[in-house]
């Protein structure tokens, strides 16, 4: 066990960095194989997206599929502060099995490269690479049969929790300015998304000590950033926010989460920006950050999954 004197950056209980440069990830290291989930019948498999970078994904397919009835596609980005967790974590595997079964959708869960070995913007670049890979199947001639046969590319969603929610937002911003051949981004799903900023919003703490963790995490993951008001982490500082490249957004927050007020702020920001889309807001009472990953069978976690499923299936087209 490393002594306190050897620690350069301490982000416990999640990870810490030693003076020698070694990163000790304290959680999020377990993985589970792709499988057929016995509880839901959802199938999963792992695919390589970019052999050069090593970016990969886990795909999820519902138990019953029909080539005549294409399914909404969710491109999902896991959380973990850009530093911990993977697409193969048991937490995400359970959550996405449950969501796929409830919503009857296909999921591409992206395993992007993580900071600090690969500082931001690498995770954004890998995530966009994965989106382009998914879009390459829109004509039915891609390398992955599940996407060719079952995905409805006119009903695509980007989603994620915590840092993954941040990625989903930024991918939608890119979709507002970059062309995606054959892919229509219907909406984004932001679960307890990691946004921050220099000035407190809502009921956020005002003292620097309380705000330091979220600020330091961003600067550690993205050392080349302009700061904590970088538009990548503070959408309120982005003059192009009205160009968000989707029609609908669902913002999910947890009552006890320190990031809750940023979710409220994000909702209000979109509504006042001239964007023109629709925002749905869902708050889980008496819960904390990403609670649904740790208690997937609880009432509030099941309700969260149902809210996301309902959002994705509104006005479904085939």
TrEMBL record:
InterPro entries: AB_hydrolase_3, AB_hydrolase_fold, Carboxylest/Gibb_receptor. Residues 74-292 form the Alpha/beta hydrolase fold-3 domain. GO terms for molecular function: hydrolase activity. SUPFAM superfamilies: alpha/beta-Hydrolases. Belongs to the 'GDXG' lipolytic enzyme family. This is Arylacetamide deacetylase.
């Amino acid at each position: 066990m490393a002594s306190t004197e050897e620690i350069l950056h301490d982000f416990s209980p999640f990870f810490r960095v030693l003076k020698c440069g070694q990163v000790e990830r304290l959680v999020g290291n377990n993985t589970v194989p792709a499988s057929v989930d016995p509880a839901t019948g959802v199938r999963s498999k792992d695919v390589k997206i970019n052999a050069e970078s090593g970016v990969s994904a886990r795909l999820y397919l519902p138990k019953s599929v029909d080539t005549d009835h294409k399914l909404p596609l969710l491109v999902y980005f896991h959380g973990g502060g850009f530093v911990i967790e993977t697409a193969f974590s048991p937490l995400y595997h359970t959550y996405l099995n449950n969501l796929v079964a409830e919503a009857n959708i296909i999921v591409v869960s992206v395993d992007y490269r993580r900071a600090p070995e690969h500082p931001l913007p690498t995770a954004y670049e890998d995530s966009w690479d994965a989106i382009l890979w998914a879009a390459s199947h829109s004509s039915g001639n891609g390398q992955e049969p599940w996407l060719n046969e079952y995905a409805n590319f006119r009903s695509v969603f980007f989603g994620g929790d915590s840092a993954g929610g941040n990625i989903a937002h930024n991918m939608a911003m890119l979709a507002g300015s970059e062309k995606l051949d054959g892919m229509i981004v219907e909406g984004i799903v932001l679960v307890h998304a990691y946004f921050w900023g220099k000035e407190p919003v809502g009921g956020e703490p005002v003292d620097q000590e309380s705000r330091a963790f979220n600020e330091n995490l961003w600067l550690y993951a993205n050392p080349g950033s302009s700061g904590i008001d970088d538009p990548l982490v503070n959408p309120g500082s982005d003059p192009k926010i009205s160009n968000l490249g989707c029609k609908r957004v669902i913002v999910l927050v947890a009552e006890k989460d320190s990031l809750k007020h940023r979710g409220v702020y994000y909702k209000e920001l979109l509504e006042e920006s001239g964007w023109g889309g629709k925002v749905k807001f869902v708050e889980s009472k008496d819960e904390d950050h990403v609670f649904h990953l740790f208690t997937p069978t609880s009432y509030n976690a099941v309700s969260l999954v149902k809210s996301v499923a309902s959002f994705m299936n509104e006005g479904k087209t085939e």
